[in-house]
Each structure stands twice: as structure tokens, then as C-alpha cells.
Amino acid sequence: MIDILFCGNDGVFDGVLTCTLSILRRTQTDEPFCFHIFTMDVSHLDERYTCISQEHIDMLDDAVKAHNAHNTVMLHDVTRYYMKAFSGCPNEGAYCSPYTLIRLFADVVKGIPDKLLYLDADIMFNRDIRLLWDTPLEGYEYAAARDHYGKYLISPGYINAGVLLFNMRYARQTGLFKKARWWIRRKKLVFADQSALIRSTTRRKLLAQRFNDQKFLHRHTVVRHFSKRLFWLPYPHTDNIKQWHIDKVHSVFRYRQFDDIYDEYYKIIKEPIKEKT
């Protein structure tokens, strides 16, 4: 079983769906996938902050089973964990949303196995996921690639936490997540959960940039991360183009490598909703 973790609310569903389809279409394997979804209701902070809908979970489940009947989707409502650990904490107004914090419950949520690949929703796979999944992790809490800008602006080994391959057994032993939650509760951090994880790390493995390419799409790129990036033309500016902004992916990046994925995505989201029996 290959276990994947996404975190968020309905606002990231298009990202979760397109990323999931990219995994399934770029990977040739009979091994089934389990897609874990952490979500929560903190609508007291923002009316948009509600759990990902059951309608979307059912849509995702149908999509993954169309590729392999043994693929599964598991929804985990972590609201109670969040309220107990992070409600009112200094990082509740995190740079993106409180949903960036909830992967830090991976060690306490039931049903999480000893190996887990966490992915941000704004990611597409360009090559077989096993090139990443098969990375040896013995003696490491996780494997991650350097942050494209952080490795220049912060430190050469500064990592981006959008792609994290966890050795959950070892991370539980070292208390990685428990220590990270301690930081979140007690100190305002620039990059919230990412900063907390980095400060709490005992031992990590650095991956090649092709496993989390935040700027370019090369032939050897395994993971293209559609994070905010700097553009120099027609004048220096930043833009936050996501993979579900398909017109911009075509016109700005001029990517056509994902068009087969987009075709399947369009068919799924345009299908009539099935009536529950």
C-alpha cells in the first residue's frame, strides 16, 4: 500500500483531485493507494473553514477506484485534535490557513501507517511516484527537498515542507510531531508548521530538487510544486499560479504535459452527482 496524506477544506479540492489523478496516471503499479484526507471545521475563525464535503470525498473515491478497485480514500476529521492543541495559539493565523497545521497530528490519528507521503495540494506528478516512495528512510524521520528560495535566502539546507516522505515509526520514537506541536503552541513562527518541523528534526534525508521543483518543469522532474514564485518579466513580480488555473498553466508556463490529467479532471467534475441509494 502506498499511503498519501492531504490536508485542507473544500477550497483545495481541485488541487487534491488533480494531484491524485497525476499520481495515478504517471505511476504504473498494481500496488493500491490509500489517500488520507485530514480536514476540520473551524468556521468560527472563517466561514470558509469547514470540513471537506462528503460529496467531494465520494467523487475522489470514485475517481481513484476507476484506476484500481483496491484504491481507497480515508477521511479523518481532526477538529477535536486542533481545538485541544492549537485553538487560540500564536500560529492560528498561519501564513496560509490553520489547515497547514493539521499534518502535525499524523502521529496521533488512528489508521496512519509507518510510512506516509505528505503532499501539499498544489502539486502535480510528472513521473512515477515510486521514484520518491521507494527512497530508503532507515534512521531518518523524513525526506525532503530544499526550498528553491530558502536555500539561498535562509540556509543551504533549508527544506520545503510541501513534499515530506515520513518514516512514521521513527518519527514517533523521536517525538518529531509532539515537539513540533509544542513550538506551534508557544511561539509565533514565520512559516508556522514548516518552521516547527525544522526546529524539531532529529535527522532528515535531503532529496534532489526534482522531487519538489518549485520553479521549473524538466524532463527529469518528478514533482512540480505550483507554489508562489518570482517572475522577472514584463517586470519583477510574484504570482501564485496553481495547477487548477489551467488557462494560466497553458498561457504563462506553456505546459501541455498535464493535458491528459486535465481531460480526466474535467470529465469528473462535470459528471452529474450520483444519487445516494
Number of domains: 1
Largest sheet: 7 strands, mixed
Please state the average pLDDT score. 90
Taking Cα atoms only, what radius of gyration do you get, to the nearest Å? 18 Å
Give me the CATH architecture, please.
Alpha-Beta Complex
| Unreliable stretches covering 5 or more consecutive residues | 273-277
Helix content estimate: 25-40%
Helix/strand structural class: alpha/beta
* Secondary-structure element series: EHEHEHEEHEHEHHHEEEEHH
Strand order, sheet with most strands: 3-2-1-4-7-6-8
CATH superfamily: Spore Coat Polysaccharide Biosynthesis Protein SpsA, Chain A
Q: In the CATH scheme, what's the topology name? A: Spore Coat Polysaccharide Biosynthesis Protein SpsA, Chain A
Task: Describe it.
The chain is of the alpha/beta class and 277 residues long. It has one domain (2-226, 258-270): Spore Coat Polysaccharide Biosynthesis Protein SpsA, Chain A (Alpha-Beta Complex). It has helices spanning 13-26, 54-67, 79-85, 130-133, 150-153, 168-174, 176-186, 192-200, 246-251, 259-270; strands at residues 2-7, 33-39, 72-77, 115-119, 123-125, 142-145, 163-167, 204-207, 223-225, 229-231, 237-239. A 7-stranded mixed sheet has the order 3-2-1-4-7-6-8. It has a two-stranded antiparallel ribbon with strand order 5-9. Strands 10-11 form a two-stranded antiparallel sheet. Helix 1 (13-26) runs parallel beside helix 2 (54-67). The longest helix has 14 residues, at 13-26. The chain is globular, with a radius of gyration of 18 Å.
Short précis:
32% of the residues lie in helices and 18% in strands. It is of the alpha/beta class.
